[in-house]
Amino acid sequence: APVLPPPSSDLSSLQREVLDLRLKLATQNAAFERTLKNQMDLNAEEVTKLKTEQERRMGPFIRAAADLSVLRDQLRDLSLSEDLYFELRGRGEDELSLREWVLVRVYETVRGYKERVASQSRELEMLRENTALAQDRLDQCKRQLTHAQVSLEGVKEDSSRQIE
Q: Where is coiled-coil annotated (predicted)?
């Protein structure tokens, strides 16, 4: 059966309905886009707040890391002249920077080690001298013993001959 076109009044009511539906869809799309844009704006605002909070919280850590890096670089060279040591030693500990305090402590520790090494070197040299003297005396005693043994053998031989 062939399809007959609808009567013209039905056609215009369908066209109005289609137009109404299109208008309603356009209105819904506009409302959805506004809601979506508002949500995106809120999300962007929240991201900005979170970044600001992160920077606020991370700031002290970043500064501390930078300070630590500078301190590490400063502490690589721990040499200190005797004059500067006495100058720093003359100040109160609360007046010294961390680097200066460490330099003083390292200097004192190293100085103690150097003094012990010097003392032990002197003692070692003394022991070497005493060992050399003792070795000389031992060699002299061995020579005297050998000479005494030879003399004793000579005396024994002379005594044996006289007894015979």
A: 110-144
